[in-house]
Design a protein that fits this description.
Elements (H helix, E strand, L loop, with lengths): L2 H6 E12 L3 E12 L3 E5 L6 H9 L6 E6 L2 E2 L5 H8 L2 E4 L11 H10 L5 H14 L15 H14 L4 E5 L7 H16 L3 E5 L12 E6 L2 E6 L12
Parallel strand pairs: 3-8, 3-9, 6-7, 7-8
Antiparallel strand pairs: 1-2, 1-4, 4-5, 9-10
Helix pairs in contact: 4-5, 4-6
Amino acid sequence: MSGEEKKLTMIDLARVSKTFPPDVHALADVSLRIRRGEMIFLTGQSGAGKTTLLRMLCGIDCPDKGYIEIAGYDLSRISGGEMQKLRRRIGVAYQDFKLLPDKTVAQNIAYSMEVSYRSRPFIRSQTEKLLTELHLLDKQDALAGKLSRGEQQRVSIARAVANEPELILADEPTGNLDAETALLVTQLFRSYNEQGTTLLIATHDQAIYDFPGSKVIKIENGRLAIQKPPTLVKKAEGKE
């Protein structure tokens, strides 16, 4: 990959494999390149490997084989300090939310901005904006642990995008939402993508990616099976 291609690449995986004991092959020889500013939907059945892939992109899990680069950083060689800085550039909406249950909705959303030393006016403005867009303004002072699962999911999404990250990773972001609320979330993601943010969204929900021009990758039994367009996926031999 040339220097110019490297600058244009947000995610680069080469022959990545991951096995969990005793013999669960979560990912097998996965190669994938996603350019900056792309919005990619990762589909597949439960257990296909979607969550494992996202967890490795977050640095939570490490591959057994292959390498992963995010924004030019090789995750196998990155220092602790560099990883901390990189994580500030990535927003993650986890499938199990990972909210602070004893903090309010507003405090949970503000957290990702506070650790990046954003100004108080920015934090207040951004929090109110997201609460309004996701129809949560009336819940801003409620404890996150007291919310319904659908409300918690929206808070998790708001926290993921609040710091205006370069990369957003979302794991089943509409899994607990009705169709109308799922549309709000989809519109929010698209608005960030239009501003240049790269998004990788793992989902079962065909409604959020079934539109002209969407870029979809299907994963089956830990392997990339179907992709649209096919140029997103690098062949194992290294050919583009």
